[in-house]
C-alpha cells in the first residue's frame, strides 16, 4: 500500500526532515498524553486525531468537541487610527463594528487576490484582534504593517501570547456555562467578551469553523492546560471529546466553509468563492483591492464554487479534474467522505456554464421524477476524474450541512 | 503497534497469511493507524489475476487514498464480504475481521513467496518510518 500524498495535514509519516522542527503549542503535551496522532501543520505540531476522526466529527455534530487552535495567528491592531486603518487594509468594515463584536472578512492584494481570510474582533474603540490562518500569519502581519504605515495604529503579532481553545457543538454552551463568569445566553453569535472561565481570565468569543454553535477561548498560554482539563471534566457527562484537525476539516467542509490553500488563494477573489458579501464597497474611503474587486464584481464570473455529492464511494480530492460531458470544466478544491451524509462530498471551482447546465439538468430531473417520467438522455452530466475513472457527481447548493 | 509473529509483511504495509497454497491479505495495524478511518476498500474481485508488486485496488480513508498492491502472484478466490458494508473493520481488527482478499498461489511448491518481510524486518521498517 502506498499513499498518495494528501493535500494538507495527513498521514502517513516520513516528511524529509530538512525543515525546522514544528512549533509546539501550550497544549502539545496534553495531546501527547491523550495519545493523539500529531502532524506538522503549517509549521506547528498539531493533533490530527485522537482516535477515530469520524467519531470526533460526529461528537461535534451531536454533542461537543474541544479543539486546540493555538496555531492560529493572533494579531493585535491598536491605536487611535486602528479602525480606519483596518477599513483601508481589509475588504470588510471593522470601523463599523461595535466593541465586543466580530466579523468574518478577508485581506486582499491590490489585484483582488485573497491573501487570507480572517476574523476581526473589535475589543475596544482603538483595539482589534485579527485572527489569521497559521500558514498566513507572517504574510498578513507584513501586509498590515505596510498598510498601517503613516497612520496612528500599530500591528503586533501576539500569537505567542495566546492559547486558543475551541469548544464546538450543540452542547458547548451547556458545558461552558457552569465554568463562565458571564451569562452565555447574553453572548451572541460573533460576539466576544472578556470573562473568567474556570477562574482564568479569557476572551470568550462565540465563533467557530464547524457549522455548529460554539465558542473560541483566547487564554494565556500558562492557563491553557488547566482550562483544557476543566472544560474536559465539565464536558465528560455531555459527551465532549477532544477533536483534531481531521475532524475540523470535514466539519468545515460539510458547513461549506472555505479553507485557505483550497477554496481560497492568491489566485482567486472573494467573488470567485461566492463570498462577495465580505467586500464592503459601501464603506467610506478607499481600501486595498477596491478598484480590482469592483471590476471583478461587475464582470461575468470566470468560475463558480460549487458543491458536489459523489454518486460513487471513491472520493473526489483536492486537485482532481471536474468533467462536464467528459471534458475538464474545473477542479476539486476539497473533498472527503462526509460523516454526516455518509457519501463523498467536495467543493470545486467549475466554469459557470457547466454549473448552470448541471443545475438545470438537476432541476429537470427533479421535475421529471415528480411527474414519474424518466429523465431523458443527453442531460449534461458532471463527473470527477478520480484517478483515471470518471465518477458521476451531483451538483448541490452549499452548504452540505446546516444545523437545525 | 501490533505485528503478529505468524504473518509476513510487505514494504507497502500489507500482511500476508500463508495457508497451504492460499494467501490471505490485509493491511497492517501501522497502516490503518496512519490512514485513519477507512471508508471504502476497492479490492480485486474473485477470479482476478494478480501479480506481486502490482496495484490491484485502493483503500480510501478520510484524508487520503492509497493503492493496494498484491503481495503475491495468483488468482483471487475470495473477497471479504463484510468490508463493503463495514470498512471500519480494517481499523478495528486489521489482522482478523478486516482481512481484504485471498489468493490461490501460482506457485504450489509450498515455498515462501519472494520479497516478503519477516515480523522483525517489518517492525524495523516501521521504526525507520516513524
Can you put this structure into words, describing what you see?
The complex is a heterodimer of chains A (404) and B (130). Chain A is globular and about 60 Å long. In chain A, β6 and β7 form a beta hairpin. About 5% of the residues of chain A have low confidence. Chain A has three domains: 130 residues, Gyrase A, domain 2; 86 residues, Aminomethyltransferase beta-barrel domains (Alpha-Beta Plaits, 2-Layer Sandwich), CATH 3.30.70.1400; 95 residues, Elongation Factor Tu (Ef-tu), domain 3, CATH 2.40.30. Chain A is an alpha+beta fold and 404 residues long. Chain A is built from nine helices and 20 strands. By secondary structure, chain B is α+β, with helices and mostly antiparallel strands. Chain B has one domain: RNA polymerase II/Efflux pump adaptor protein, barrel-sandwich hybrid domain (OB fold (Dihydrolipoamide Acetyltransferase, E2P), Beta Barrel). Chain B contains four helices and nine strands, in the order βββαβββββααβα. Classes of the chains: A alpha+beta (404), B alpha+beta (130). At the A-B interface, β1 and α7 of A face α1, β4, β6 and β7 of B. β1 of chain A pairs antiparallel with β7 of chain B, so a sheet runs across the interface.
